[in-house]
Design a protein that fits this description.
The protein is an alpha/beta fold. It has 15 helices and 14 strands. It has a single domain, classed as Aldolase class I (TIM Barrel).
């Protein structure tokens, strides 16, 4: 592992020796490009091949579900014993051209499953989502200890299959209110057994997942995690909690930690209620990363808000983090990494999306669906269309999946 360089173009060497050719990290985005059997479509290979050609150092897939009975979205990809590994191998092969690394993000949604996909989701405790989300998400059933052990085993199985398929690493999705995040939160995890109560108990689930994955893939295969800095909810997962979890995972040997924040109920990951001062400095979670940097040596990625090479290079120069996470900008400019690497003054501006009708904007969730349509264009070997009409995007979503499309969605 090296921390000597301070520029986007400098390679980064992980502790296990894997070399990432530059410091640009494509964070996970919802693609909705799985087929009816929840295998990757050729469109996913086209999309990630485009990003690899665009110069990205490391790409992380959109969340890949470890259990086909627990989908967060209708067109999720699932990686389990029933999967067509040839489709995953084609995806990984395309995503690793041009010396790009490609990691599989593994996830279980827990209670964050829309009610049109399941009648009875599972969670640490039988506690509903709030803030109006209870209309679209059913009250979950509390997992049994046997089921918890089964889910841990599924994470490990998926990680082993990802390695077999040619992915160069895996990332545990421990953020944004999904199952791992639910176990960590005292708001959502009110169990009285070894899986709940104290922070030590609440973090047992994620630690056991990491250990099971590590045992399956071996010491030299990278295993990372996406973790909330906090979930920004009263009685929830706090920054202090997060720092203790980070230190525990670091001691356990995790290879990379991506810092994010928020949940469906408080979506800070897409800029919801972010302070003006934070927006000005671009990165949403940089303050947290600065604190964590003093506690651990594990490589850090900060994702959320970065728009200019100058700010990215400054954060690297100040040793706040090791890699810069970017997501939505890559949906409109897949060649952005090459531009950022070639020009220290390069930057990108994302326009504010609106139909002009507030009620439609709220229902349409344009910050997710509009970008998904850009990914769909690239999957079909078309260039992104930055001037794509919000109304056209709204109509496309409505046509493709009906009103179900506008239930709360992943970010």
């Amino acid at each position: 592992m090296t921390r000597e360089s301070t520029e986007l173009k400098t390679p980064f060497v992980l502790g296990n020796g894997q070399i990432v050719k530059n410091r640009l990290f494509k964070s996970a985005m919802s693609e909705q490009l799985g087929n009816k059997e929840h295998n990757p479509t050729i469109g996913l290979a086209n999309l990630y091949g485009t990003w690899a050609k665009g110069g990205i150092g490391l790409s992380v897939s959109g969340n890949i579900m470890i259990d086909r009975t627990a989908l967060g979205e209708p067109k999720n990809v699932v990686l389990d014993e029933l999967s067509d590994l040839s489709a995953f191998k084609a995806w990984a092969e395309a995503a690793t051209i041009n010396e790009s690394q490609f990691w599989a993000q593994l996830n279980h949604p827990g209670k964050q499953i829309p009610n049109f996909l399941t009648k009875e989701p599972v969670a640490p405790s039988a506690i509903s989502l709030e803030g109006g989300l209870e209309k679209g998400f059913n009250t979950p059933r509390a997992l049994t200890e046997e089921e918890i052990e089964g889910i841990i085993a599924k994470f490990a199985l998926s990680a082993g299959l990802a390695k077999e398929s040619g992915f160069t690493g895996v990332q545990i999705h421990g953020a944004h209110g999904y199952l791992v995040s639910q176990f960590l939160s005292p708001r959502h995890n009110q169990r009285k057994d070894q899986w709940g109560g104290s922070l030590e108990n609440r973090m047992r689930f994620v630690l056991r997942i990491y250990e099971a994955i590590r045992e399956t893939v071996g010491a030299d295969f990278p295993v990372g995690i996406k973790l909330n800095s906090a979930d920004f909810m009263k009685g929830g997962f706090t920054e202090e909690d997060s720092m203790q979890v980070v230190q525990t995972l670091s001691k356990a040997g995790i290879d990379l930690i991506e810092v994010s924040g928020g949940t469906y109920e408080s979506p800070s990951m897409v800029g919801h209620k972010v302070k003006a001062s934070t927006l000005k400095r671009e990165a949403y979670f940089l303050d947290y990363a600065e604190k964590v940097r003093k506690l651990i040596d594990t490589p850090l990625v900060v994702t959320g808000g970065f728009r200019s090479a100058a700010v990215m290079n400054d954060a690297l120069a100040r040793n706040v983090m090791d890699m810069v996470g970017i997501a939505r900008p890559l949906a409109v400019e897949p060649n952005l990494p090459n531009k950022l690497l070639a020009d220290k003054d390069a930057k990108i501006e994302l326009r504010t999306l609106s139909t002009g009708v507030r009620a439609v904007d709220k229902m349409a969730m344009l910050d997710i669906t509009w970008y998904e349509h850009q990914l769909e264009r690239m999957a079909n070997r078309k260039a992104p269309k930055e001037n794509l009409s919000e109304w056209v995007s709204f109509a496309k979503t409505l046509t493709s999946a009906g009103m179900y499309s506008f239930r709360k969605r992943r970010a």
